[in-house]
Structure formats: C-alpha cells, structure tokens
Description:
Layout: H1 4-7, E1 19-21, E2 24-26, E3 33-38, E4 43-49, H2 53-71, H3 75-91, H4 93-104, H5 108-131, E5 135-137, E6 145-152, E7 156-159, H6 167-179, E8 183-186, H7 193-204, E9 212-215, H8 219-228, E10 234-238, H9 241-253, E11 258-261, E12 266-270, H10 276-288, E13 298-304, H11 308-321, H12 340-355, E14 359-362, E15 377-380, E16 397-403, H13 406-413, E17 418-419, E18 421-425, H14 429-438, E19 443-446, E20 461-462, E21 465-466, E22 479-486
Parallel strand pairs: 7-8, 7-10, 8-9, 10-11, 12-13, 12-18, 13-16, 15-16, 18-19
Antiparallel strand pairs: 1-2, 3-4, 5-6, 6-22, 11-21, 14-15, 17-20
Amino acid sequence: MAVTSLTGGDCGSYPDLQLYIGGHWRPGSSRQTIPVVDPGTGETFAALPVAAPEDVDAAAKAAGAAFEGWRETPAIERARVLRGAAVALRGDLESLARNTSRESGKPLHESRGEVAIAADTLDWFAGEAQRTNGALLPARNRDSEFRVDHLPVGPVAAFCAWNAPLANPVRKIAPALAAGCSAVLKASEETPAGALALARALEAAGLPAGALNLVFGNPAEISECLIAHPAIRKISFTGSTSVGKRLARAAAVRMKPATMELGGHAPVFIFDDADIEAAAAAAVTAKFRNAGQICFSPSRFFVQTVVFDRFVSAFVDGAKRLKVGYGLDEETVMGPLAHANRMKAMERLCREAESAGAHRATGGNALDRRGFYWEPTVYLDVPVSAQLMTTEPFGPVAAISRFDGLDDAVAEANRLPYGLSAYVFTRTQHVANEMIEATDSGTIGLNTFQVVLPETPFGGVLDSGIGREGGLEGMEPYHVTRFTHWA
C-alpha cells in the first residue's frame, strides 16, 4: 500500500484533518475547527474539524447500516483486513511516529514503539477473529442439541484519550472489528493523527464503508449523542475516572454494556532483597516515559527502610541525567507535557506537597523555554495526606516514601480506591506471593514495569475501571453469548 494513503499527503507530512463517516472523508458540518498545538513549542500547526450533531448522528447511522454486512463477513476476511492495516502502519512507521511526537510531545523512540505495538495489536486480534469458537454442550437427551454462540454485540462507540494517539484507538477498534462489530470512534482532539492513520490503513486494507467512522469535537456533546443513539449497542472509554463514571451512568440507564479503562495511582514496592540499582534504573525509565502521562505509570514509590537511601540515590541520579527536550530531537529522553493544563496541575501538586512537608530531591519547576516543559521531579517522605499521594499526578513527578514490613506494604497498596497497576520488586518467593494475593489491582508487575502487551489482558478494579483490553479477554466485551436449545 502506498505511504500517502495514511497521511493524505506526501510521505512525512502531517495529515489533512477530516471526519470519516460512511466511507467518506469530509469536513464538519459546523465548519468550526479546533487548534492542534505542538506542545514542544506551544504553537498551533493544524486545524481539526468539529463534528456537528448531524455529523455524529450520521456516523452512528452509518455504523448501524454497516453492521449487518460486517458481522456476516467471514472471520478469515475480517482477519485479512486487520492484518492489511497492520502492514500499512509498519510501512509508514517513521512518518506516523513523527506525527505522534509532534502533536503529543513524546520522544521519537517512544512514538516508534507505539506504532509498532499498534500494528502488533491489529495482528493479535486478527488471529482472535479466527479463534472465536462456540460450543456444543451435552444435551439431556439424544434428540436435542445445546448450542452456545458468541455473537458481535453490535455497533460500538469508542472514546479515546490523548496520551497514546494510535495505541488507544487500536486497542478498542481492533477487537471490535475482529468480533464483527462496527464502530464510531471519538478520538482525541489534542492528538488526532493516530486515529486518522488507523482509519486510512483500514480503509486501504478493504474495510467496508461505515464499519468504522471517525469524529472529533465537543467530547460531552458527542458522548451524550452516541450513548443515547439507538444504533449504538456498546461503549468503550479510556480516560479519567470522573468522566468514566459519568459515561458509565449514561450507558447504564440505557442498559448498554461499557468497558471503562480509567485512572490509577500505581504503587511500587522495593523490598530490601531486590536488585536495588537495577530496580531504580527501570523505575526512572518507567516513571518518566511520556513525561509520566500514562495511566499505568508508577507514581507512588515505597522503599523498605534499610535500602531507602540506596534506591533514592540511584533514582534521583537517573532522573537528573534525563535529557528533556523536543520530541522530534533524536537525543530527547523525556519530552514536554501535552498541554498547558498539565503544567498548571504540576504546579499545584508540587507546591501543595512542599507545603505538606515533603522534601524535594530534584526538579519541581517549569523549564524556562517555549512549550510545556516540566523538570523530572522527585519528592521524598511525602505525607499520605498530600494530594500527590492521593491524586494521580499524570506528569513527571515521583513520590518516594519508606516502609518497614510486609503488612505496611499491603496496607499502602490498598489505601486508595484505585486498582489499575501495581509493581513489586523482590527476589523472595513468599513476599512476591503475599503481595500478589493481597493487592487490589488489575495488573501487577513483579520485577518489571512491562504490563501492557497485545496478547495480555489490561484493566483495573475499583475506581480504575471495568472490563479488559488486550489478550483473549479483550474480545469478550464485544461479544454477547447466545444459548440455543434445539429440540
């Protein structure tokens, strides 16, 4: 497939921003636009069309009209479309990565990894499309049949966050299409290029018109319209807990199932038998990836007292060595925050932590340059009452505190009403088992921070969400189970 099909322009160019409805690329009927800002410079470089209510209605109706044909498409054909889109993404990896870095601020090496994992996700769910099986159960007599089928739930409304412009949409759209569902994707207005690339890749791979529709605009208005729309049968959302709860309530009123991948405040526990220097190095990489703007980012570090000073020394040294710069600079390790609001949030959290008595080991301030840059920041011995210990920072700020025994670690692991991710570093089997069994979390990394892959389930418990994305479990939310007794 030609590279130009993913950008709508020359290789390496930023895409022509449009809506995609019923197989047609078009501007919004409102003729209004939203500025797309480069967080590395603070400058506007593109204008995104805003979908009017009639555009959203048309997208939902297009998904509804396309559903019957797509659900009847053989699984092997659905898989071929997904694999074709994966090939297209890999073929345009460099261009897509540069667009991702320009609009999100993340360093190029992270953007390249995001494109690669998005392609892998399409491949994984292409396989799952062909592995969805029903069952024949033993009937109660020889003249009847008990049959179980897993059927596509119907047209899906998917809502995505800005921090992973391509990976977030793919983790929703790939399983939906693999299951035989059509979809309307409301992607991020701050980082729209990834969603457009996905739609163009699927279009070029042969996805029928209307099976995927793409809209942008006012998030509240679009979500209200799509959730209430009679054509939509299910919703899937990635974003904040507060917004997720509002959308889940709206879906529940209409008895529409909802997958919610929400916020976290991931604790990390460093026990005294861990490889301290290796754990600190891994922690620095994980904490400051995408400037800390990841829902499963480690944010609360708890270190056993006897090794506290060693870990802090290694972690702070690592944070100080990070090269902060423009995302498109090959040498950049940590880029800017996504937008000005994140800068304000960092200012509030840091000043409040200092007022509460936390010790600042490094960072804590905005960098004096164009764009939205914040220093890699580390606070020590932050009181549990401080906002930094109760509110997801979603930025390059780490809080490191001490703990003594296993009971202290378990109590802290479950202190907050979040359970998205948790991390444990220990080489003692019974400590690992105890932490895994006692921690309320949907994902746990034991001596690793890698907890999200296409073939593994990801999602939270408590206020961190409902349902799973990825893995075998990632297909389940897009199916309904039907039992037939054939007498």
